[in-house]
């Protein structure tokens, strides 16, 4: 057993509907010594993701659900304290599935080394992490945008969405960003320079979309599902495409997921709708990271990060994702 003080946030019980304080339990168990192909990590930074809602839902998905009593699954960045894995030595800084904990034993197969001289820890969870390569491969590989096309993005001011907007602009597309509230639409318009913005909480969505994309929508990058997906489907052009990245409006209740009422538009317009997960692209992560770093260095792309402090902020951070209170990639700094 290590004597390093540790805190873990564990899943207490699977939530039904909205996640409340009863979902989590905090423990201070001393971590065990790492076993074969494991490392002991001191965590610096954690990522808070909408997909976590699916990880605490006992339903078939792309990964098995977290079991009650287990440390909550999360991406993180940390320093190796002890290693029983060939690939890592003490002092290495790594990212991957680390769990919501300050110190802990992690399977090495879920980790890769990162270089903090190239970018800070936060970047490896935002633009250079899962967020960045989800946006990169989801837009370019699945969506295949062409210069001059109209690309609509939902949750556009969020972590993935803001990256998609910028990468679509780099491709020479005309970008329409949909987000909740004037601060987010101002960010999209004034900072990222997207061509048109829609505040889906204030503007009549159908009318606003027609005005923002008068010629129709070539490509829709969907992060939210629900009413927004329905509205965009009505504006899809002939041979238009929908990329299903996420459906955050539908995550609260896995038993009551609402499908797209307007999916028949895909028949009428010979359109396609395709889902993907970032797991499909793990073998190509270095390609995305190299390109994103190049765009960032050239001033063409920026990462928007919203950083909370301390592991105790995790339940609040989780709520923020679903209330829309986050302004960009939501992270927890465990050192500050
Ligand atoms: N396929 C993959 O492999 C993959 C990987 C990573 C992420 N994702 C998905 O990508 C999407 C974005 O993730 P992210 O990490 O970038 O999160 P994010 O956009 O930074 O945060 C989530 C945002 O969703 C919006 N939202 C929350 N509840 C909503 C609702 N009921 N209706 C409409 N919008 C709502 C809020 O923005 P507003 O204030 O604008 O409403 C909130 O800020 C999620 O659906 C996530 O599951 C998929």
What does it look like?
By secondary structure, the protein is α/β, with parallel strands linked by helices. It folds into 2 domains: 8-126 and 304-333, Medium-chain alcohol dehydrogenases, catalytic domain (Quinone Oxidoreductase, Chain A, domain 1, Alpha-Beta Complex), CATH 3.90.180; 130-279, Rossmann fold (3-Layer(aba) Sandwich), CATH 3.40.50.720. It has helices at residues 52-55, 130-143, 159-170, 182-191, 205-212, 226-233, 265-268, 285-297, 314-323; strands at residues 8-11, 24-27, 38-47, 75-83, 93-97, 103-107, 111-113, 150-153, 174-179, 196-199, 217-222, 236-244, 272-275, 305-309, 329-333. Strand 14 (305-309), helix 9 (314-323) and strand 15 form a beta-alpha-beta unit. Helix 2 crosses helix 3 (159-170) and helix 2 packs across helix 8 (285-297). The chain is globular and about 60 Å long. Bound molecules: NADP nicotinamide-adenine-dinucleotide phosphate. The site of NADP nicotinamide-adenine-dinucleotide phosphate has 30 residues, from helix 2, helix 3 and helix 9.
